[in-house]
Amino acid sequence: MIIKSAQFKQSSPRADMCPSTDLPEYAFIGRSNVGKSSLINMLTGKNKLAMTSSTPGKTMLINHFIINDKWWLVDLPGYGFAQRGKREMDKLWNLISHYVLDRMELTCLFVLIDVRHEPQKKDLEFLQFLGENRVPFSIVFTKADKLSISKAKANAESYMNSLKDQWEELPPYFLTSATSRLGKDELLDYIDSINASL
Ligand code: GTP
Ligand code: MG
């Protein structure tokens, strides 16, 4: 798929304040600093579209980007950033869970996982939450450029294998890098194929 246009539309503090259109939405979620905003920039080819930062907790609102005037990319805040304190964490979880559970337009949620790390409790709990609530999702491994390609592939495969204990059927997964643009075509083609099936 070719991205002809990508524009920031709005930041929303609550799921029920998101844009009201019936266009399909693809949202990015994951721990703070995993690379959600960077991935949106990589996919759209616009380096400054979504705000990124080396300090975790940059994205605090639900950010909508309209793509080719036909579908949305959505940048969500990260979960599990403990330094924020309990009240702030509860507020963020409230925002994330309402978006994930109530947003009818949400067509596929991409859960981002840093390919360098062993499975982390926070992520596994989040995947469990999605399963229990039947939210359709795929997994996107990020920062593949920080490892050799063979190590990155091996880590991704072993992560998926470890999910087999918990899941009967594994979701699709993608290996990506915002710096080398690995996985760009695969992810965009995947979104394209879902859009075509709607
Ligand atoms: P929050 O909004 O804080 O939850 O973070 P985020 O998940 O949106 O992460 P963000 O895209 O802001 O990236 C965090 C840091 O990781 C930044 O310093 C990015 O430059 C870096 N980063 C993100 N993706 C990649 C990648 O694929 N490769 C490398 N080398 N660095 C990356
Ligand atoms: Mg972000």
Annotate the secondary structure layout:
Blueprint: E1 6-12, E2 25-30, H1 36-44, E3 62-67, E4 71-75, H2 86-102, E5 106-114, H3 121-132, E6 137-142, H4 149-163, E7 173-175, H5 184-197
Parallel strand pairs: 2-4, 2-5, 5-6, 6-7
Antiparallel strand pairs: 1-3, 3-4
The protein binds guanosine-5'-triphosphate (GTP) and magnesium ion (MG).
Low-confidence segments, ≥5 residues, pLDDT <50?
Answer: none
Average of pLDDT: 94
Quickly count the helices: 5
Total strand segments: 7
Shape: globular
Please state the CA-atom Rg, rounded to the nearest Å: 16 Å
Bound molecules: guanosine-5'-triphosphate, magnesium ion
Biggest β-sheet description:
7 strands, mixed
Structural class: alpha/beta
Query: What separation lies between the terminal Cα atoms?
Result: 16 Å
Q: So what's the oligomer here?
A: single chain
> What pattern of helices and strands is seen along the backbone?
EEHEEHEHEHEH
Q: How much strand?
A: 15-25%
| Order of strands, widest sheet | 1-3-4-2-5-6-7
Helix content: 25-40%
Q: What can you tell me about this protein's structure?
A:
- The chain has five helices and seven strands, in the order ββαββαβαβαβα.
- By secondary structure, the protein is of the alpha/beta class.
- Strands 1-3-4-2-5-6-7 form a seven-stranded mixed beta sheet, sandwiched between helices.
